Amino acid sequence: MTNTNWLPDLTQFPGPKYLALVRALREAVRVGTLPSDSQLPTVRELAWQMKVTPGTVSRAYQLATQEGLLAATVGRGTFVASATPRFGPAQSFYAERDPAHLAGRIDMRSPRMPDVGQGAAFNAALAGLADTSANDWLDYPSQRGEAELREQVVNWLQGRVLGSVTADDIALSYGGQSAINLIFQCCLRGDRPLVLIEDLAYAGFRHAARLSRADLLALEVDDEGLRPDALEAACRKHSPQVLCLTTEAQNPTTVRMPEHRRHEIADIAKSYEIQIIEDDCYSIAHSNIPSLRALAPDRTWYVGSFSKSISAALRLGYVVCPNGMGQAGRLTAQHSFFGLARPVSDLCLSLLSSGTADALRSAVQDGFTDRLEGVVNILGAYDLSWQQGLPFVWLRLPSGWRASIFARMAENEGVLLRSADEFALIHGRAPNAVRMALPGNHSRAQIEEACRRLARLLDSPPSELSV
Fold first, then answer.
1. Is residue 154 located within the same domain as residue 268?
2. Cα separations in angstroms, 11 against 15, 21, 35
3. Are residues 345 and 364 in the same domain?
4. What's the pLDDT score for residue 89?
5. Is 0.85 surpassed by the pTM of this model?
6. Are 436 and 403 in contact (CB under 8 A)?
7. Residue 185's closest CA among 52, 306, 321, 311?
């Protein structure tokens, strides 16, 4: 159902026109003027009817989509979300794995850890903990009680160039997404703070910003990562508070930012006094390039987790806070959840101190590397970007394909992918490309068969493309 006759009266709502339009959308949904699943006018159509700029409508649609009020689909339009929560996304960015839906399919939407003996290692560590009478699992966890685990996290990071880091700089969290939320709580100020992200980026940044009532601005990237001129222009025009980016393994494009570009980004951040979130959850164990945390230690929050290197089930995340901010990070964590659950923190401490975590990380990376080799052998002749050890690749589609259509047809062939649209802001840049994550629960032979199906699709684009 298309509500092309809906024309809000913005004089009822104070503030800038784009915010007034968001409030008008909320009110129309609340009273039922715009029921669930009703289609909204296009940006240009509504802008013409309201006699405002298309940018005003586009920004309002973007904010309403981020808070879950609206849902947008490339090629179909913008709709009122089917079930609008009080706040929160209409859909989770996490790829749910419904066994019935996945029967006979290869799920390449999100990486899946290969089984390299994690279960047996966890069981052995838990058995050891059960034999330790000193464990106190009755009282609330505390930040002070995590000091030894934080020391082990510092050791875990020895393969990175992070500058001077001690246990006092570490704050622990329940996974990388929780760490991003924690950092936003530490850094963002005011009613509608501005957060900068890459124009193709991990969806969790968008959802964390929405929960913090922050606005988002996407900046252009090139084959070396975030463009410094785009960052500086945004800093001059706006007053951003936080920049979110990935230097080692950009998600989804796999780009690794060279050292000279990192220096440029760090210098701009210093000049304009903005904080940096450096997401390193996907990167491999060792890097010889200085991180932004090493180049701008007074303003960089470095985020990592066990989810992409050992097991997503552990939910151990960590933040290397800027110099002098470790206590603030831990205090924010304490106010949010007291501390990690003792069974989780004690298990992770055992894995790290015994060397088991390092062995598992190495075995997981070997498993991903083997599967990646199979993907590259079959799809390497196409426009494929990849990085040794990463659990995903970026495939730019040949002429004749749209990403959304390719993803649908791949699903018909039993292969689930993520379209570039899922990494872009609404009305943002979305190239004809897909991200293919490595499913460690499938063998290399099964993944190669999936890639052969995709290759046949790539060689046979549809004669007519849907708009």
1. yes
2. 9, 10, 22
3. no
4. 43
5. no
6. no
7. 321
